[in-house]
Sequence to fold (222 residues):
Amino acid sequence: DIQMTQSPASLSASLGETVTIECRASEDIYSNLAWYQQKPGNSPQLLIYDANSLADGVPSRFSGSGSGTQYSLKINSLQSEDVASYFCQQYNNYPTFGAGTKLELK
Amino acid sequence: EVQLVESGGGLVQPGRSMKLSCAASGFTFNNYDMAWVCQAPKKGLEWVATISYDGSSTYYRDSVKGRFTISRDNAKSTLYLQMDSLRSEDTATYYCARDAGGFAYWGQGTLVTVSS
Fold:
């Protein structure tokens, strides 16, 4: 199985700040990577696919980048509604997820 | 509008069976691979199984191979997960999801609790 190491596990940031979450794969996943947002009590929502493509309806303050084994999700100008957990997922092989990042407001 | 609605969860004793269903609407069901993804309480996400658009191919995570069976009825636009020999570690919310690389659409989930 491809292991996904996500960091940080938790993050505290202020409104308007830019935050970055990272994921490292145990082998090259050729940009077959997605990012999800999950708010408490809700299902995950796709934010980014193919490492850098924005899913339908997702605000442009979210962006993804990376290649090979290293990927990141950036949130520009943090809004209160962005408080959530974020997960990366590779689909180059059987799907595996990162352990998640819990984002809170400072 | 794409909708995925799971049902069939609840409390079940260890070693017993349970069958989950996922009713799909708002898209051409038989054009898409479908998957089950689970999330243990307060934990992360784990892929469980995927079935190809026509049902000809199935894939499972190692911990459920031989115990869980994913299937679909394209005439009814419904996805299933038959879970046998359930263990306490199978306790989780189970989501069905449309599998196209990333999981673009998810159901609301159904909670399965395995406990005596």
About this structure: The longest strand of chain A covers residues 19-25.
